[in-house]
């Protein structure tokens, strides 16, 4: 039995567009995993087949992302919000503080989670400018006694990103790279810890990849329950308890596709091409579209824009839907419009959006 043909192209920030090839490969493999005689959801997480598959997924991720050899890669259940809470528990020893660069909605959530269990301090903030620009690393006031410094490499809600990842900071650099890991080349060796929810560039929702310098895992205090401790997850090879095997398998299918398409270099190139296409279309009609993010800090992954008023934004969304383009609503805290273009978005999708942007600009509002 075949499902309905897909008709829509989604620019959603949260549940991304999936390449047809990945869906087809997953659909073919789901009912019978290789020579096991079992369906994917029937694979036991203690089986040698699962252990081998997980090794394969992790190895592919390490290759694609360029993970340095002294890093642990953890596949953990739940979205990155879980890591907002686990990070300070694991990396901030009692009596120490942690520094945060506030560049948006999700950076603030990470900071609030750290404050809930200990000392956290703002090293730089873009809040006064409505998070339309990212404070330059040279202006960050980093406490050399902090346990770590946390940044968000791409601000999904505001459409900005940290252009240059600073090197040589006095404390370990930790990043939430949920919306740009594998969408652009990030120098992973500069981060002590990087974590990313899979639901954007890596595929499925409800799974987070954590890449952590092995020597830092010993910082976690002994009193923590094992399930909250990264070190225990690392020692158990991300199988401390029953892992979300189907999600991890789907992540693996997405990684296979990324590798076959040309890997990180090609993903980085496509991200820039899609971004260029859409920004050029928006900038061609300054009387119709507004771009709140500072030009030099613009994200090429999440393009945030608006028209002259909310009614016109709604007309744009309707025109988009009529052409099969959906998920273009802005985040609820900022409103407006947003085009999220993760690894699975074809460059042709950006072209379709650009064509609509030009067409709509001729008759905004109808
Ligand atoms: N960090 C960033 C950068 C995000 O974009 C998001 C979700 N959009 C999150 C964290 C939170 O993700 P989740 O709701 O899956 O925990």
In summary, what is this structure?
This protein has 366 residues and is of the alpha/beta class.
What's the overall geometry?
A: globular
CATH homologous superfamily descriptor of the largest domain: Type I PLP-dependent aspartate aminotransferase-like (Major domain)
Number of domain modules: 2
CATH class membership of the largest domain: Alpha Beta
Going by CATH, the architecture of the largest domain would be 3-Layer(aba) Sandwich
Beta fraction: 15-25%
What portion of residues is helical? 25-40%
Look at the structure and give the mean pLDDT: 96
Largest sheet: 7 strands, mixed
List bound small molecules.
4'-deoxy-4'-aminopyridoxal-5'-phosphate
Number of alpha- plus pi-helical segments: 9
Structural class: alpha/beta
- Rg measurement, Å: 21 Å
CATH topology of the largest domain: Aspartate Aminotransferase, domain 2
Number of strands: 13
Which descriptors would you attach to this protein?
366 residues; alpha/beta; Aspartate Aminotransferase, domain 2; Aspartate Aminotransferase, domain 1; 2 domains; seven-stranded mixed β-sheet; binds 4'-deoxy-4'-aminopyridoxal-5'-phosphate
Provide a descriptive summary of the structure in words.
The chain has 366 residues and is α/β, with parallel strands linked by helices. It has two domains: 23-260, Type I PLP-dependent aspartate aminotransferase-like (Major domain) (Aspartate Aminotransferase, domain 2, 3-Layer(aba) Sandwich), CATH 3.40.640; 263-362, Alpha-Beta Complex (Aspartate Aminotransferase, domain 1), CATH 3.90.1150. Helices cover 34% and strands 15% of the residues. It has helices at residues 20-29, 48-65, 80-91, 105-115, 230-235, 245-261, 263-283, 310-322, 347-362; strands spanning 9-10, 71-77, 97-102, 119-125, 149-152, 154-155, 160-161, 173-176, 193-197, 207-213, 302-305, 325-326, 337-340. The chain has a seven-stranded mixed sheet. Strand 6 (154-155) and strand 7 (160-161) form a beta hairpin. The protein is globular and about 65 Å long. The mean pLDDT is 96.
């Amino acid at each position: 039995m075949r499902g309905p043909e897909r008709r829509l192209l989604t620019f959603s920030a949260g549940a991304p567009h999936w390449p047809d090839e990945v869906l087809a490969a997953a659909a073919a493999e789901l009912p019978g995993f290789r020579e096991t005689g079992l369906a994917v959801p029937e694979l036991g997480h203690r089986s040698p087949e699962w252990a081998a598959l997980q090794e394969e997924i992790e190895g592919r991720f390490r290759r694609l992302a360029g993970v340095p050899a002294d890093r642990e890669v953890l596949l953990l259940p739940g979205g990155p919000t879980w890591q907002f809470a686990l990070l300070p528990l694991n990396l901030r020893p009692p009596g120490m503080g942690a520094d945060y660069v506030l560049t948006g909605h999700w950076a603030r959530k990470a900071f609030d989670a750290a404050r809930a269990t200990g000392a956290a301090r703002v090293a730089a903030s873009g809040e006064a400018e409505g998070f339309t620009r990212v404070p330059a690393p040279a202006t960050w006031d980093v406490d050399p006694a902090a346990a770590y410094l946390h940044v968000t490499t791409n601000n999904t809600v505001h459409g900005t990103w940290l252009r240059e990842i600073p090197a040589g900071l006095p404390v370990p650099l930790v990043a939430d790279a949920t919306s740009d890991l594998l969408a652009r080349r990030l120098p992973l060796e500069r981060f002590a810890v990087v974590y990313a929810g899979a639901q954007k560039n890596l595929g499925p929702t409800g799974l987070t990849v954590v890449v952590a310098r092995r020597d830092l895992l010993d910082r976690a205090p002994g009193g923590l329950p094992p399930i909250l401790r990264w070190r225990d997850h690392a020692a158990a090879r991300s199988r401390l308890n029953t892992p979300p095997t189907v999600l991890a398998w789907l992540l693996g299918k997405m990684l296979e596709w990324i590798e076959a398409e040309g890997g990180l270099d090609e993903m980085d190139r496509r991200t820039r091409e899609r971004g260029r296409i859409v920004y050029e279309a928006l900038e061609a009609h300054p009387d119709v579209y507004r771009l709140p993010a500072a030009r030099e800090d613009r994200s090429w992954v999440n393009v945030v824009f608006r028209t002259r008023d909310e009614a016109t934004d709604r007309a744009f969304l309707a025109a988009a839907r009529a052409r099969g383009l959906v998920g273009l609503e802005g985040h609820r805290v900022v409103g407006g419009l947003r085009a999220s273009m993760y690894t699975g978005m074809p460059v042709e999708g950006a072209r379709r959006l650009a064509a609509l942007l030009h067409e709509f600009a001729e008759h905004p509002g109808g």
